[in-house]
TrEMBL record:
Residues 1-61 form the HTH tetR-type domain. InterPro entries: Homeodomain-like_sf, HTH-type_TetR-like_transc_reg, HTH_TetR, Tet_transcr_reg_TetR-rel_C_sf. The keyword Transcription regulation applies. Keywords: DNA-binding, Transcription, Transcription regulation. It comes from Amycolatopsis samaneae. This is TetR/AcrR family transcriptional regulator. Residues 24-43 bind DNA. PANTHER family: HTH-TYPE TRANSCRIPTIONAL REGULATOR RUTR, MYCOFACTOCIN BIOSYNTHESIS TRANSCRIPTIONAL REGULATOR MFTR-RELATED. The lineage of its organism: Bacteria, Bacillati, Actinomycetota, Actinomycetes, Pseudonocardiales.
Length: 199
């Protein structure tokens, strides 16, 4: 295993057990068995390290799935695709919430993190944008209602998945796959079926 990989493994462990704000580069380097100076040969700062952990040590299925959504437009069923997105999003948020949540307790760290994400053109908003683009393309093909709002639908789906991941750290929840299916069925009924007229 390379030095960088050992550092990423140590960083992922320390950030998840102590929270991002309380995880220092010195502690991460020590956990990896290297000096802090060695850590800085591979990573610019803690934010750079955190982004590397998110992209390389978090469940990658959501990223892979979102990267291939364009190829799914017009293929299979919209419901099946959204259910797969929901399952992977719940898994991703559940896994990363303990590590990422503490960033909000440190304004300077949050500001640095935002700036680094802006520089790299990454961030959590891109997940919503990619899903909204997929839904917009499906709407263009007539596979969802013409008056459906793709951005709102993407926000509703991912927001519910985020809440599910958040709540899993407070209450014992079972059946994430069942929840994903119920969530998508409820959402798709508004995307596909015409509203009933009140008589």
């Amino acid at each position: 295993m390379s030095t960088r990989d050992q550092m990423l493994d140590a960083a992922a462990h320390v950030m998840r057990t102590r929270g991002l704000a309380r995880a220092t580069t010195k502690e991460i380097a020590r956990a990896a068995g290297f000096s802090e100076a060695a850590l800085y040969k591979h990573f610019r700062d803690k934010t750079d390290l955190f982004l590397a952990v998110l992209s390389e040590r978090a469940p990658s299925s959501l990223t892979t799935l979102l990267g291939g959504l364009n190829d799914r437009v017009g293929q299979g069923s919209v419901s099946e695709t959204l259910e797969e997105v929901a399952r992977e999003a719940i898994r991703f948020y559940n896994h990363n919430f303990p590590m990422a949540a503490s960033i909000f307790s440190e304004p300077q760290l949050l500001a640095a993190h935002r700036e680094t994400m802006r520089e790299r053109g990454v961030g959590p908003q891109h997940v919503t944008e990619v899903l909204a683009d997929y839904l917009a393309a499906e709407r263009k093909l007539g596979r969802i209602r013409p008056d459906a709002d793709p951005r709102a639908a993407a926000g509703l789906l991912l927001g519910a998945c985020f809440q599910r991941g958040f709540l899993s750290h407070f209450v014992d929840q079972q059946g994430d796959d069942d929840f994903a299916g119920d969530l998508v069925r409820t959402l798709v009924s508004g995307l596909v079926e015409a509203p009933r007229e009140r008589g």
